[in-house]
Amino acid sequence: MRAFAAIVLAGISSGLMALSTSLQALEAREQPRETALRAALLQRLVRRRIWLLGGLAGVGAWVCQAFALSFGSIALVQPALGLGLVVLLFLGVRMLHEKVGLREKLGVAAIVASIAVLGWAAPASTGAFTRAGMVVVIVWVVGVAVAPQILRMLNSQSGLITAVVAGLGWAAVGLATALLDEAFAHHHWFVVLAWGVAVGAASWGALLSEMTSLQCWPATRAIPIAFALEMVVPAAVAPGLTHHGAGPAGGIPFAGALLVAALGATLLGSSRAVAGTVAAEPVPTT
């Protein structure tokens, strides 16, 4: 029952996340390219009403994600966020009248099937993080937070790199949120505050990188990379960072489900119907 509640909450979170991505990307594409990876990009965006609405949806998505992680493990919740791609597909079909083809059907089937398997194969709860696991998450958060500045210094602002940083950034947000939930459950309020700051720092780096990626790269390329990393990476590393293990049958069903989830994210994210909902102009057919 708790796993079902976690999936439902993750589904709500993914829907709000999809709405947030769609609204914010429309505004990001209107900003000058010289603002890429700079705080000025977000400073300009916060003045736009549509972008702020997307930001509110994103905050709601994170709250639902945090509640989902209190009911189920990160190995289940993060892949379930792939349902956001299904929401984007629905929006693309309804708003843009895009057709649902074999790619979209296979993508939806892969994501739904992987979540069904993970409902059985994933650990019931995230479990306590090891000391080494917490250190890894801290280093990860710091790396994501400073990544935009480093990329700007290296003059490396490609859509691929920023999409990867965005995906790893949102993955770090998921891991830090799980640690925040753990501290909250034990009433360690100072630790809750510390992980709250970590969530904010990782979100800053991830958001700035994501807006830059969608600003300068086709959505059909940026979306599948960012979504797949956010979905799969936290679940994949969780067994090594926590005490919950890899699940039944030596973790083989768990690993297989994660691969299927990544495939589904790649298929759906590269679809015209999905990418068109976060593009300011029609998505090309080639």
> Distance between termini?
44 Å
Strand/helix succession: HHHHHHHHHHHH
Computed structural class: mainly alpha
Rg over alpha carbons: 18 Å
Could you tell me the mean pLDDT?
A: 86
In short:
This protein has 286 residues and is an all-alpha fold. The chain has helices spanning 2-28, 39-45, 49-71, 74-80, 83-96, 102-121, 131-153, 159-185, 189-216, 219-241, 252-269, 272-275.
Secondary-structure map:
Layout: H1 2-28, H2 39-45, H3 49-71, H4 74-80, H5 83-96, H6 102-121, H7 131-153, H8 159-185, H9 189-216, H10 219-241, H11 252-269, H12 272-275
Can you walk through the features of this model?
By secondary structure, the chain is mostly helical. The protein has one domain (2-278). 77% of the residues lie in helices and 0% in strands. The chain contains 12 helices and no strands. The protein has helices spanning 2-28, 39-45, 49-71, 74-80, 83-96, 102-121, 131-153, 159-185, 189-216, 219-241, 252-269, 272-275. α1 (2-28) runs antiparallel to α3, α4 (74-80) packs antiparallel against α10 and α7 packs antiparallel against α8 (159-185). The longest helix has 28 residues, at 189-216. The radius of gyration is 18 Å and the shape is globular. The relative contact order is 0.18.
